[in-house]
Amino acid sequence: MEEKSLYQTLLDQGVPQTDIGNHYSDLYVRVTRKTKEIIQDYIQRNGLKGMPEVFRSNIAGEGYWYDIPFAYIPFWEERMKKGRGLGR
After folding, report:
1. Residue 83 in contact with residue 32, Cβ under 8 Å?
2. What CA–CA distances, in Å, run from 25 to 3, 42, 51?
3. Which has fewest Cβ within 10 Å: 10, 15, 65, 74?
4. Where are the alpha helices (DSSP H) in the chain?
């Protein structure tokens, strides 16, 4: 099983910050050939199933994005710094 998060894997594989976003703890990743391959590989190596949901951005020219719930690690890191943990 992979020790690295999907978020960190994307960064390590050179996915630009412009192709990564978030809404609170949900990770958004622009759909590209590269991100599709990285996500598929991550899912396979970790024994997961299926691909994340895809949505079309309502911002003109932004295209399609993967929506990966609870996978935006900086949100959780900041929450832990504030002593809030996983709860409210």
Report:
1. no
2. 19, 19, 18
3. 74
4. 6-12, 33-45, 73-81
Amino acid (1-letter code) at residue 49: K
The full length of the chain comes to: 88
Asked if 29 and 16 touch (Cβ cutoff 8 Å), the reply is no
CA 38 to CA 7: how far, in whole Å? Answer: 11
- Provide DSSP, 11-64: HHTT--GGGEEEETTEEEEE--HHHHHHHHHHHHHTT--S--EEEE-SSTT--E
Task: Read off the pLDDT of residues 14-70 as tens digits, 9 standing for 90 and up.
Answer: 999 999 999 999 999 999 999 999 999 999 999 998 999 999 998 888 899 999 999
Residue spans of the domains in the chain: they are 6-81
pTM of the full structure:
0.86
Which has the closest alpha carbon to 22: 84, 69, 79?
A: 69
Residue found under tokens 């960064």: 11
